[in-house]
Amino acid sequence: MADQHIVKQFDEELDEMRATIAQMGGMVEQQMTNAIMAISRRDEVMAKRCQEADSEIDAMEDKIEALTTRMLALRQPVALDLRAILAALKIAHNLERMGDYAKNVAKRASALAQLPEVGPVNGIVRMGRLTHGIIKDVLDAYAEPNVDKAVAAWTRDQEIDQMYNSLFRELLTYMMEDPRNITACAHLLFVAKNIERIGDHATNIAETVYFQEKGTRLEGLRPKSDRTSYAVVEPPEADEAI
Amino acid sequence: MADQHIVKQFDEELDEMRATIAQMGGMVEQQMTNAIMAISRRDEVMAKRCQEADSEIDAMEDKIEALTTRMLALRQPVALDLRAILAALKIAHNLERMGDYAKNVAKRASALAQLPEVGPVNGIVRMGRLTHGIIKDVLDAYAEPNVDKAVAAWTRDQEIDQMYNSLFRELLTYMMEDPRNITACAHLLFVAKNIERIGDHATNIAETVYFQEKGTRLEGLRPKSDRTSYAVVEPPEADEAI
């Protein structure tokens, strides 16, 4: 009876851990939506809200660390349970990073509000929506859990990288056309990079779900499609320039 | 006797874990030195070496994950030992991120080699040296362990942020002066940001050392000094421009 009682308690703790991850994931999704809105509307109030929400997300990571450390110390889990606990720790860390990047995206709204509007903001919004969809999918993959869904989301990260590549070039071209665009576009370069990093963390979560369920690594490195580190964009020739 | 034997084995495993962290830290230090050299000399061979070294650093993180998971499962540690194991896991993760950022710095050497040289590269080299010093200090703080050294390194991260602020503005000014500088300076913006992120991860390690030793959080949030998200840099007025 005493043993059964302990097992039941432990199951409840594991459930609480998973529910906390789901709640934290929901907060990161909301943060992402708000950050993109802050940038597209150059909305400083929304940017401030993102900044406040970030500390709530940090607090959730602390909560998951406390829960998992307690379980490791008191329940001394092995095999599947140990894997689930270490997976939750990793996922919480990834979600915290995603929240942080979203906050950094939102922060730039106030600089953008003081600068001339530039076109590539629309591309940023599209990239943000795509990334938000992928975050939703990996969180569903964790909650169900569903390995196929995790792998599908993991593969779609390439689409984010491709959008980032186009945006990188587009932003540089805007800068070359008119020096008054340079500061806004430099901020948008970082916004685009941060969204691309959020996508990378989403794929990390997909990998963790896979490992938790299968006990092996997701095989075959996904081809990295962010090629911008090598990009050379030339300004138009002097005689072609207006 | 059997108990003593188990205790001795566990101590050896903890020693191995710490030695592996030290080795991984040394690799990240070397990676940092090589990445800065690749950028300052626009040296594509060195950049390629950094790329190869990154997978060795990743393998070290895997090794530490395997070691710690095994200890958690077989030794079921509590209190100080549990804290040391979770600290090693966190530090390995931070070192992996630092290695990754350093690789990303080095990667941009090949784009830079095809572009006109720009002045702010010297500032990048100084920022890289400062960051390298802080990495060395937090690794020493972990190895000894020495809480005071960890706190001192943690505080010095502000210097990195300040250098990053100046570089951000300097790079934007170079872009505004001549559109031919734009691509090189965009790459250097990311290089500077990556070094700043490496510094952030070094402070995370300092915080982990503090928590491992004291069991409490490093009090008082260090003031964040990266203010570039809010920076508005204006091009010179048309009539002032050459």
From TrEMBL, chains A, B:
Assigned keywords, A-Z: Cytoplasm, Phosphate transport, Transport
Cell compartment(s), UniProt: Cytoplasm
Species, as recorded: Thalassobaculum fulvum
One Pfam family this sequence matches: PhoU
Annotated InterPro entries: PhoU, PhoU-like_sf, PhoU_dom
Oligomer and partners: Homodimer.
UniProt domain PhoU: residue ranges: 21-108, 124-209
Stated name of the protein: Phosphate-specific transport system accessory protein PhoU
One GO cellular component term noted in the UniProt record for this chain: cytoplasm
Function per UniProt: Plays a role in the regulation of phosphate uptake.
Biological processes annotated in GO: intracellular phosphate ion homeostasis; negative regulation of phosphate metabolic process; phosphate ion transport
Main location: cytoplasm
